[in-house]
Amino acid sequence: MNHDSYSPDLIRSILQSVKTIALVGASSNPVRPSYFVLKYLLDKGYEVFPVNPGLAGQELLGRTVYGSLKDIPKPIDMVDIFRNSEAAGPITEEALALDPLPKVIWMQLSVRNDEAAAKAEAAGLQVVMNRCPKMEYGKLSGEWAWVGGHSGIISSRKQALHESGKMQSLGLGPRKGY
């Protein structure tokens, strides 16, 4: 796969298919990007499990923080890596040891580890690098334009409202069953 460019359809299919996300590198500091990405994904209806060994056992935005991926008591669909490129390798290895395997390894902005990506893809996982799911969701939903961003997507299709009636969504409808 070409990890320099991702089609909107690929990103949309990933964001529509995942329900549970492990956010590795979660921070309790509300000005850190990992904090507001955690909040945003929770607001969009994803079940997010913050992972940070230094905060393990504490609560963050009403969610228990876990020390490692293997400590999460539920299967994970996507591992969102908020660590540097070098750390993405061992985190991907940890994800590949899970049973069942996650569907997606997602590396945040400026995080790229081609070796880890190749291992994950060889195991059948999808990989996204150097992208933020919050930003990608916003681009696909039309929210990105609210803050002056250009999504690169031209469409006359009216965006669907989120279940709250206040925010746009990817047209997924309400997430239920959590």
Q: Describe it for me?
A:
By secondary structure, the chain is of the alpha/beta class. Helix content is 29%, strand content 14%. It has five helices and seven strands. The protein has helices spanning 8-17, 33-43, 85-96, 114-122, 133-141; strands at residues 20-24, 47-51, 59-60, 63-64, 78-81, 104-107, 126-128. It has a five-stranded parallel β-sheet with strand order 2-1-5-6-7, with helices on both faces. Helix 3 runs parallel beside helix 4. The termini are far apart. 35% of the residues are buried. Mean pLDDT is 88; it is low at 172-178.
In a nutshell, what does this entry contain?
With 178 residues, the chain is α/β, with parallel strands linked by helices.
Structural class: alpha/beta
Low-confidence stretches: 172-178
Distance between the terminal alpha carbons, to the nearest Å?
33 Å
Task: Please tally the β strands and state the result.
Answer: 7
Q: Strands of the biggest beta sheet: in what spatial order? A: 2-1-5-6-7
Instruction: Indicate the overall shape.
Output: globular
Gyration radius over CA:
16 Å
Quaternary: single chain
Strand content: 5-15%
Q: Whole-number average pLDDT?
A: 88
Summarize the biggest pleated sheet. 5 strands, parallel
* SS element count, helices: 5
